[in-house]
Amino acid sequence: MTNDDDLSASATADAHLAAIVDSSFDAIVSKDLNSIITSWNRAAERLFGYTAEEAIGRSILMLIPDDRRQEEVEIIARIRRGEPMPSFETIRKRKDGSMVPVSLTVSPIRNPSGRIVGASKIARDITATKESERRIRLLMREVNHRVKNQFAVILSMVRETGRRTTDPREFEQRVRDRIMALSRSHDLLVNSDWVGASLAELVEEHLKPFGRENQTRIDGPALRLSSNAVQNLGMAFHELGTNSAKYGALSSDAGRLEVTWQIVAREDGLSDLQLTWNETFPPPPGERRSDPARKGFGTVVLQRVTPQSLGGHATMKREGGTVTWTLTAPMETVSASERE
Fold first, then answer.
1. Which of these, 172, 226, 234, lies nearest to 207 by C-alpha position?
2. 202 near 234, Cβ under 8 Å?
3. Residue 147 buriedness (CB in 10 A; 0-12 / 13-18 / 19+)
4. Which is more confidently placed, 248 or 140?
5. N or C, which terminus of the chain has less Cβ within 10 Å?
6. CB-based contacts of 315: which residues, under 8 Å, 6+ apart?
7. CATH number of the domain at 3-125, please?
8. Phi, psi at residue 323, to the nearest 5°?
9. Which pTM value belongs to this model?
10. Could you state one GO biological process linked to this protein (predicted)?
11. Residue 57: CB atoms within 10 Å
12. CA–CA separation, 265 vs 251, rounded Å?
């Protein structure tokens, strides 16, 4: 092979390498041992905002925040000594002054005789990765908080159910049903990444075990509930549904259940959620059947736990063949969007 052939092969290889560098999705920058930029690919333009004409010949320090300048000193020192540089994550500065998290890989550049004359840097934008990590941390904190809260609710549930139940089998069944109701609310929250759930979905989910969909009407404006509202309203819907399936509208083919809500403006410029659970059904013949939920755990949930947890108030009315539970609560404690 002639010298011309050698030169041609070398030029071809250089052209291929230049094409690879220029088309890379990662920013690739080279610099000399004085930290002066000597090459700058298109991805570097996109990432940092400088064109190649603006960057080449300037110090790499223009990309480094003041509080991280020592990184460059250490990088150059290690490159001069020929020490390997593991990839690391850091922050770099764009032309507009904004900061961007990057993963950096630094490698030495050698001349034909093998002497180190500079360094090549590959910078990868890890903004999306950092955002995902942030969301995961937030989610884990939320899950940790909710799990602790669930434990407290379950302990209270077991305690209150035990006070009002003497039959061990009945106690076991009631606790199991209530824990399953909590689980249904929990599933809705998990499916939404713990950002809340639709009020309509919550009602539907807690009425599923009782069937009789053709006797039920659910109506109201679209509303995404906060995770706290999902849990507490879910408990209320379970207690109401269980009682209805035993004694009310969902216990006979002639019953009718309507769950409706509206958002009402207050004088202070804020709004309230007004929710109504209304049942109509044929009164039982003779004496009206007793309703154990009136003095049981269900009453505690409906008249105290749920309204207080949402900063609102509730009323329960039972007259003949009707049962009406009404809840009024401020939107700032109920709506997920109000809390963002």
1. 234
2. yes
3. exposed
4. 248
5. N
6. 324, 325, 326
7. 3.30.450.20
8. -135, 125
9. 0.56
10. regulation of DNA-templated transcription
11. 10
12. 36
Which one, of 271, 248, 251, lies nearest residue 335 by Cα? 271
Torsion over CA of 83, 88, 91 and 92, rounded to 10 degrees? Answer: 50
SS3 call for 55: helix
**CA angle at 71 for the pair 70 and 72, rounded to the nearest 5°:** 90
Give the homologous superfamily in CATH for domain 130-339: Histidine kinase-like ATPase, C-terminal domain (3.30.565.10)
Q: What is the dihedral of CA 74, 80, 82, 87, to 10 degrees?
A: 30
Q: Residue 216 belongs to what H/E stretch?
A: strand 216-219
Say if CB 108 and CB 79 are below 8 A apart: yes
Domain ranges of the chain: 3-125, 130-339
**In this structure, are residues 310 and 227 in contact, taking their beta carbons and an 8 Å threshold?**
no
pLDDT digits (tens, 9 = 90+) for 181-237: 777 887 777 777 666 788 999 999 899 888 888 899 999 999 999 888 888 899 899
Other beta carbons within 10 Å of 17: 10
310 with 334: CB under 8 angstroms?
yes
